[in-house]
Amino acid sequence: MSRVHLSSLVTVAGAHTVPQAALGESMRHQLARLPEAAGVAQMITFVYARSDIRARHLELAPDELERRDDWYALTNEATFRLACRALDAVLAAGERAETLDGLVVVSSSYAGFPALSRRLQDRYRLPTAARCLDLTGLGCGGSTQGLELADSLVSRGTCKKVALICVDVMGTFGAARRHLRAPTMSQLVAHCLASDGAAALVVEREPSPRCVLSYARARLRTRLWPGTLALNDLTADADNQPLIAVGKDIRARLLPEVAPLLEQLEPGLLAMHPGGKALMQLLRARCPDHADAAELAMATLREHGNLGAPSALWVLRRALSSELAGALDRGGRCHLFALAPGIVTTLLTLEGARSHAA
Along the 358 residues of the chain, how does pLDDT read in single tens digits? Predict the structure, then answer.
């Protein structure tokens, strides 16, 4: 059976790393102008400290965000800039733009057209007939669905080499907000978690010296949580300000919806998107067999915050260079797990997986 190869896996953080404490102080300063926000402001220290996040990343500098009011344009600008740096890193690893006949871009922070993939195709002079596809609105579950789409293009012979780029600047998006009224706790928690990052790799049929993982078949499983459509929000509010929110009811639904899936998971390497400390702690306690995978996800969250769609690939890259990679030899499977807005459980399993990471 022919195999598919994942090559040149790179991760890129937003250009400006800001301590979590500084971001909390900035939020407190904004809310001080709103007398009705006093109650929420008192919760900032508790919420930010409880997140266990040391620092987050912003693609645009905090002082620039304070000067600008064009949040729609600046979010697109930041997303494009970060996507370019991710593709630059792939090319620096030894890939050549002219050999890429497919491009899949996953982003919930970029909006409008021309599509982000088309802008990148033009910027890097990818072949004019390259298949360029964009997936949006998938939030933290975007990497699993983007990778399955890239795999489909390669496995069916539509393309020979597909670059996959997952990029979100939810940190910049949230920081661009001008608070005209008191945020809800769901909004405060989302602001506390959001960070900017990108991950990119190449999916191809032919092996290359840059291959980090190969596999025989990809299988995607998704499940909608009924009645949870409103638990995540990334949009604009009635004041035409960027709005990001994470509903607290996710925690109550997590174990009934997710634990049975993880408890029945076939042996292999598991890379989990770290949605938040509380969620990971619940899963670690309920599914002790996956405690090491949960800890690796929590370490990524602790150091970088919630990066959105790229997060699971950030964890995968760390896992391939850790002791957890030995699970591939025992199980022959690589699992990427995440929660997408909606809420949707998404699990991509790469069957017959082998690590080629140095």
Answer: 589 999 999 999 999 999 999 999 998 888 888 888 888 888 888 888 888 899 999 999 999 999 999 999 999 999 999 999 999 999 999 999 999 999 999 999 999 999 999 999 999 999 999 999 999 999 999 999 999 999 999 999 999 999 999 999 999 999 999 988 888 888 888 899 999 999 999 999 999 999 999 999 999 999 999 999 988 999 999 889 999 998 888 888 989 999 999 989 999 999 999 888 888 888 888 989 899 999 999 999 999 999 999 999 999 999 998 888 888 877 799 999 999 998 999 999 999 999 887 6
Contact call for residues 177 and 71 (beta carbons, < 8 A): yes
Q: Does 143 share its domain with 238?
A: no
Residue type, 334: C
Element holding 356 (H helix, E strand): none
Read off the CATH number of the domain in which 247 is found: 3.40.47.10
Do 173 and 109 share a structural domain? yes
Does this model's pTM top 0.90? My answer is: yes
Give the structural domain span for 262. 212-355
* 93 and 216, same domain (yes or no): no
Q: How many CB atoms lie within 10 A of CB 84?
A: 18
Chain center to CA of 159: 25
Into how many domains does the chain fold?
Answer: 2
